[in-house]
Specification:
The chain is an all-alpha fold. It contains 14 helices and no strands.
C-alpha cells in the first residue's frame, strides 16, 4: 500500500513539474514582451504578487494565519526574502540588460547546480556517477544554448550575473523548505503575503510605465505573472521539493528553456539556431542520465533495509 501511494505521489510530482515548466515558459515570453513594450521590472513584480495575493489571502484568512505562525515568522521572512519580491525583481532587472533566452537558460542552470551543491553540503545527499555527469551535461547544454547570443558587452554580463544570483536564491529556498519540512501551501502563502506588504512603497518609489499599457495587457500579466507564476508555479515547485527533494526537483528546470524556445517561436517568431537545438539535445540527455542516476542511488540506499540481515 505504501509503495502504491509513493508511486502515485511521484506521478503527481512529475505532472506538477511538467505543468510548472509550461507556466514558466509562458512567463518568460510574456515578461519579455511587456518589458520591451510598456512595463518596468517593478511593474511586473507588483502585478505578480498582487495577483498571487488575491489567490492566497482567502486561503490564509480562512486558517487565521495559524499555519504561517506554526512555520514561524522568522522562517517565513527568510523564505520570502529568497523566493518572494526580491526574486522576480532581480530576474526582471536582468531582463533589461540581457535577452530572455539568457534568463530562461541561466536561471534553471544555476538552480540545478546550486541545488545539487547545497543538497550535498546540507543533507549529505549521495550522487551517483550518472547523476553527476547528467548535471554537468545539463549545465553545459544550458550555457551552449545562450552562447550564440553573447556579445561580450558588460551590460549583458551584468544581466547574466543577476540571473545566476537568482538561481542561488531559489536553490536556498528549496533547501530550507526541505530542511524545515514546510507545507507547500503554507510556504507559498507566506512568500506571497509577505511580498505584498512592501508593494505600496514599491509602486510609489520605483519607476513605472503601467499607465502606458492597455488594460488587457495588465490583466493578462496579473494572470500570468501573479496567478500562474506567482502562485501556481511556486506551489507546484514547493510540492515537488517535498515529494522528490531539491536535487530531483531542480531537474525539471532545464525543460524551461526548451519550452521557452517553443513558445517563443510561436508567439515572438524567434527560432533557435542549429547550435541551440544541439544544446537542447544535450540538456535532454543530461536530464535522462540524472534521472537514471537518481533511481540507482535510491536503490542502493534502500537495498540493505529490504534485503534483511
Amino acid at each position: 500500500m505504501a509503495d502504491a501511494r509513493d508511486t502515485g505521489n511521484t506521478r503527481l510530482a512529475i505532472v506538477a513539474g511538467l505543468t510548472m515548466i509550461g507556466i514558466y515558459a509562458i512567463q518568460f515570453v510574456a515578461a519579455r514582451f511587456s518589458l520591451r513594450e510598456h512595463l518596468t521590472a517593478a511593474d511586473l513584480a507588483a502585478l505578480r504578487f498582487g495577483g498571487a495575493g488575491v489567490v492566497f489571502l482567502p486561503i490564509v484568512w480562512r486558517g487565521g494565519f495559524a499555519s504561517i505562525r506554526a512555520l514561524g515568522w522568522r522562517r517565513a521572512l527568510a523564505l520570502a526574502a529568497l523566493a518572494g519580491l526580491p526574486y522576480p525583481l532581480i530576474i526582471n532587472w536582468g531582463l533589461t540588460y540581457a535577452p530572455a533566452a539568457h534568463a530562461a537558460a541561466l536561471c534553471p542552470a544555476s538552480i540545478v547546480f546550486f541545488s545539487f551543491l547545497l543538497s550535498r553540503i546540507v543533507f549529505h545527499d549521495g550522487a551517483s556517477q550518472q547523476r553527476t555527469i547528467g548535471v554537468l551535461a545539463i549545465i553545459a547544454g544550458l550555457f551552449l544554448f545562450i552562447a550564440p547570443a553573447r556579445d561580450g558587452a558588460g551590460s549583458v554580463l551584468f544581466g547574466d550575473m543577476l540571473f545566476i544570483g537568482s538561481g542561488l536564491m531559489f536553490s536556498t529556498y528549496a533547501v530550507l523548505v526541505r530542511r524545515w519540512h514546510a507545507d507547500p501551501v503554507t510556504a507559498t502563502a507566506a512568500v506571497v503575503l509577505l511580498s505584498c506588504l512592501p508593494l505600496p512603497a514599491l509602486c510609489l518609489l520605483a519607476p513605472s510605465r503601467i499607465h502606458a499599457a492597455a488594460a488587457t495587457e495588465i490583466i493578462a500579466q496579473i494572470a500570468i505573472q501573479g496567478i500562474l507564476a506567482g502562485a501556481a508555479a511556486m506551489f507546484l515547485y514547493t510540492y515537488i521539493v517535498r515529494q522528490l527533494g531539491p536535487q530531483t526537483a531542480s531537474l525539471f528546470l532545464p525543460g524551461i528553456p526548451i519550452a521557452t524556445a517553443v513558445v517563443g517561436m510561436a508567439v515572438l517568431g524567434e527560432t533557435p539556431i542549429t547550435i541551440q537545438f544541439a544544446a537542447i539535445a544535450i540538456m535532454a540527455a543530461g536530464m535522462g542520465l540524472s534521472a537514471i542516476g537518481g533511481r540507482i542511488a535510491s536503490k542502493r540506499l534502500t537495498a540493505p533495509a529490504t534485503g534483511g540481515s
